[in-house]
Amino acid sequence: MLMDLLPFELIDLVLDFITEGCDWRACSLVSVGWRAPAQIRIFRHTYAETSPQCLRLYYTLLHSPHLGEYIRYPAFKIDNKITAQLASAIIPFLKRILRLFVFCGQWTWPGDRPHELSNIIAEPIYSALCKQPLHSLWLEGCSFANADLQEFFAHAPHLEDLYIKGFTSRAFDNRPLITATRTKLKNLTVALTVESYLLGEWLCNPLCSLDLSDLQYLNIEYVPDYNDQIVTLISKLLKVVGRSVTDVILKRIKVDSSRQNRGVPFRFHDNPGIRRLTLELTPHVVWNPMVCPPRWVESSILRLPQPSQIEELVFNLEIDISPPELLLGNLHLGLPQHTGWARMASLLTKESFPALHSVTITSPLPWYRQLMHQAIGRHEMESMGMKWTFFMSDIYHRPILGKRKEEEAK
Fold it and tell me: What is the CA radius of gyration of the chain?
């Protein structure tokens, strides 16, 4: 056929231009020369979320094992023992996994418990970490003992990114941590709760098979407890990470009403290398920037190392909507502003933060309200001679002016 005479580079360009899976399937039927390039794109991202999907994928790989070479980013949702066993049978067919996503569904009685499902999937995960170029691993809703995690990551030479969320630690496991080769991570995302407290202790243990000394990106989601054990654990983890981390995100998932206005409960003096810091610590807290200053923001700034090399600060919070007529009237008449932004500007001085170039506040306000707050904040901060730029952004971190142009175009 004439289509077979096309060079492979041109076929790849045509297939890269196509984004729909159904079109790739049609291209795979054009000729023999189009089949392999199209199948690579069809099976690159594979999702098996139910037992029928897992069974269909298993029989596909059983009859066409060469397709396992094309699956680079598999994702499994495991809700029962059948899906766990099928996922365990599928993973050995995959030869070049780059990222593996394993999600254990929420346990409901009388279903299979997370640790039972995790036991079934443990051996294939260990085998994939050892034998394949796996650089990213996502574990959500799983349950392992610290000794199991120690064995997993002691033989993972290619692993760089680790995401652990909804984890349940197994207590009463007295197996010692065997010191072996350590895996150096670059990116770590972890959710710390009372259920995953032992996971945090393992990460802070000097014998941990994960080496965090070269970590660059750290994302911590946590639920504070009444005894501040999680806060203490995060402080230890920040100390273990040390000077290498450059991008830190701290997100408080839940908080009781008595602590909702607290700022950052830990310091960053052991992390002078931070360049970008994102704080999302006020869920369900509403405050008015035109009446009172954001006191938790002030307390958070005071806990940052000074002088600091931070280049970008991002605060995620909720803002109460004030009457726009009053705000614009004060701005146009030149009346004194009592926004609290002046207090924040006085803390972020050039002497304390010489590398700072932007401060961003993200909120769920509509763009025209955010644009108004941004103008007032910049007016007040520029009057104090601040060299960094103040931005307001939506919850998707899109610039306000860019979003305004998109809506006007519609």
Answer: 26
* Strand order, beta sheet including 45-48: 45-48, 73-78, 99-104, 136-140, 161-165, 187-192, 217-222, 247-252, 276-280, 312-316, 358-362, 389-393
- pTM for the model stands at 0.80
Q: Which distant-in-sequence residues (6+ apart) come within 8 Å of 128 by Cβ?
A: 91, 94, 97, 100, 134
Contact 214, 244 (CB under 8 A): yes
- Smallest CA-to-CA distance from 407 within 368, 372, 365, 376 is with 368
Q: What is the largest CA-CA distance in the chain?
A: 78
**Other CB atoms closer than 10 Å to residue 408's CB: what's the count?**
7
Tens of pLDDT, residue by residue over 104-134, are 876 554 555 667 788 888 889 988 888 888 9
For 73, phi and psi rounded to 5 degrees? -130, 75
Question: Any bridge partners for residue 77, and if so which?
Answer: 103
Given the structure tokens 């496991």, which residue do they identify?
173
Quick: pLDDT tens for 245-277.
999 998 887 765 555 545 567 778 888 889 998
